[in-house]
Amino acid sequence: MLPHKKISILVVDDELSIRESLSGWLQQDGYEVESAADGPAALAKAQETHYDIMLLDVKMPRMDGITVLKTLRESNADTAVVVMTAHGAIQDAVEAMKLGAHDYLLKPFDLEEMSLIIEKLVQVQTLAMENLILKDRVATISRFENLVGQSPPMLQLFETIVDVAQSDATVLLTGETGTGKELVARSIHSQSPRCYGPFIAINCGAFTEHLLESELFGHEKGAFTDASYTKKGRLEMAHGGTLFLDEVGDISIKMQIDLLRVLETREFTRVGGTVPLHSDFRVIAATHQDLQESILKKTFRQDLYYRLNVIHLQVPPLRERPEDIPLLAQYFLRRYATETNKKMDSIHPEALEAMRRYSWPGNVRELENALERAVVVGKGRQLKPKDLPFVVGAEEEVVAGLSLEDVERRYIAQVLASAKGHISNAAKVLRINRTTLYHKIKKYDLAP
Fold this sequence. Notes:
Rossmann fold; Helicase, Ruva Protein, domain 3; 4 domains; 5-stranded parallel beta sheet; disordered N terminus
């Protein structure tokens, strides 16, 4: 049976004995119940308080149930109405159903039957609410370019994206590989005034210095061997939109100087060309490197860093938001089940727990790859632990001969390492409170 603690019911009948018997029965089922002796009293209560369900007698003095139903539908269409009528007045029940009543009960009625009808309505309302929540999540995912999350770090990131998107300032995204930095960049672009312009991305670490120069600036025909035609560069293509420089920390010093000049003037020339070109674009850069450390090592220019780091966003790693793993896993499961035309639609609790405990060094990208593989190799409608061999394998450890305390100590140490010593996150993974975790750290002489 579904939980009823938030389900409220209004019983409307002119007979006191019926009101009291129905109220007592429903309260025993766990519902919050109020009653009204006639139609006007019921409508007055419905104006002050929202009721999930109303049990409404059809034959009442002053105002009959059909009139109450009509009035209720004009002001509060969310309340599910079950009409109560005598065996000889089936036509009243039919008319009420046409007006939007969800069901009917014939007097004298069976209380067990009434309980089943109420429970069915609760299930319908619960499914409707879950559908609204799912639609809201889908809208959020679409709004944020498939960024999925409901953890505090992600909610904070979503809020910052909305604020940052409205300006034209340069943004520097930092975070580990696989955290979704390009998705963040696309989300900023899609919510900005430049959303109707192009989003041009380039992975700066995927090209040699000379190829990157040609990719960014473009080249004129004959500028070098094999340059058999004039080619627009990404700077030119990004006019009116956003230029996303991924892995900007991998750019050579010479290219950093050239890029700095472009960011200051928005002017450049193609390789082999002499005519200055102008392009209007917003820059979003991303890197997994520590650029301040690169500055100390003389591999990254400080002036370029300041030019890029106008607004800084840190994209959190997956281990710092473990509560997002179930939502992400379900999201990827649905996506790849649809793509592969498989009927896999759920995840076994043990498989989900294994995913929660795994450290995910490859972050969301690794999780996505794991789910894609699991859908391909999995059998049946449910994803099982055996479909995630490398996740389960990473947790397997020979513990023969160890005491229970030894096993607990080693596991807590492993979780603390995965959480980089973050007590709150480690406690969430272990499903204990922080005080208990502190006691165990002290007991086993662990480094937090």
